[in-house]
Amino acid sequence: xxxxxxxxxxxxxxxxxxxxxxxxxxxxxxxxxxxxxxxxxxxxxxxxxxxxxxxxxxxxxxxxxxxxxxxxxxxxxxxxxxxxxxxxxxxxxxxxxxxxxxxxxxxxxxxxxxxxxxxxxxxxxxxxxxxxxxxxxxxxxxxxxxxxxxxxxxxxxxxxxxxxxxxxxxxxxxxxxxxxxxxxxxxxxxxxxxxxxxxxxxxxxxxxxxxxxxxxxxxxxxxxxxxxxxxxxxxxxxxxx
Length: 241
What we know:
five-stranded antiparallel beta sheet, Glutamine Phosphoribosylpyrophosphate, subunit 1, domain 1
């Protein structure tokens, strides 16, 4: 299991992914689940993955090979829009699933899912969620949060506090707290967390940061949030007799 998060804002995007992959309690590894396709000044496309690791790695590697002279129909650098990029990722997933699903089925679930977010010059930042069938939905100002993997523990804080005018820095804090809540409640999610604060029209990944569990900022953020929650609960009125 994993947890990947995408947030669409007026100012841009916040995208985050964890690093834990496990095939059982005694087979745990760390894998980067955010792949970046960047041409500075022209496009930034991030592909975040969850699900069967072999399936998602096959899709991402296919996309990376296409970006370096492979199949032009799968080249994210040739996509005219983010919608086209989402179609490319969905089609690649369908191809891998059609090839592998029958053989994987006796051993487990072969499915995967993706978030595709970023910006191509000439259009606004966009964010898509690709399902295991290869179809997808797009984030909107009314539905600005997209999550794949182990999403339920980290969702409440986002639902309560996010809105379209939330700044990138504020949304990044909420994203890290969302991961903290998930990690506390589910062993299948863990750091490091790759987090990209993508500023609208920057067409750059300069604000990409990796947060380990020991990162001083994240440690301090978790501590202050916990202390603040305790103080808030203490200040609330007690139930009536």
